[in-house]
Write a structure and sequence with these properties.
Length: about 180
């Protein structure tokens, strides 16, 4: 398919996903995990300060080591303060990126336009993603998915081009994914 068709599908993915998840801008923090991760976490509330960044890489708070997730919450605080709606909206934006990458990745792997569109829209709108997208402290899920998809993208590029830079991209994206959600 032509490049214009890809752009149209990417724009449709954005519009459809936003139409479903736009309402999260009005949501507050929940009483489950959000206090520990965001709303009552003094390190996160400090934003991107040197002590908070060090804490992110050394903390096992909430029973997990996921510094990329902590840093993303801190970045949200830097950009939006403690407005819960924008913390949720960051998850929506990450989910939109993930859905677009799914479309482009499947198109690259299969070369089939319409099946790739279907997979991307099913990924974007599947009910199993609601918790990850609409719950602020589930940022770790959309972040790890993002880095997993980037890992896959870099691997496909490496296999087709055999350039060390793409292999390095595989390793770095994989590490970032593990630093987002230990699975």
């Amino acid at each position: 398919m032509q490049m214009e068709s890809r752009w149209v599908i990417c724009c449709l993915i954005i519009l459809v996903t936003l139409s479903v998840y736009w309402q999260v801008l009005g949501h507050g923090f929940t009483g489950f995990d959000d206090p520990e991760y965001i709303s009552q976490n003094v390190h996160v509330q400090d934003g991107l300060s040197l002590p908070s960044i060090i804490w992110a890489f050394t903390s096992l708070e909430a029973g997990n080591w996921h510094p990329i997730t902590w840093l993303s919450h801190m970045l949200d605080v830097e950009m939006f303060g403690m407005d819960a709606g924008y913390h949720h909206f960051t998850n929506v934006v990450l989910h939109i990126f993930n859905s677009i990458i799914v479309f482009l990745l499947f198109l690259r792997i299969t070369g089939r336009f319409w099946p790739s569109c279907l997979v991307a829209f099913l990924f974007s709108l599947h009910p199993l993603h609601v918790e990850s997208v609409a719950w602020a402290s589930e940022r770790k899920d959309v972040l790890s998915t993002f880095f997993w998809l980037v890992t896959m993208w870099c691997y496909v590029k490496y296999v087709t081009h055999k350039h060390f830079g793409w292999y390095l991209g595989v390793i770095l994206a994989f590490i970032a994914g593990l630093m987002s959600k230990p699975m």
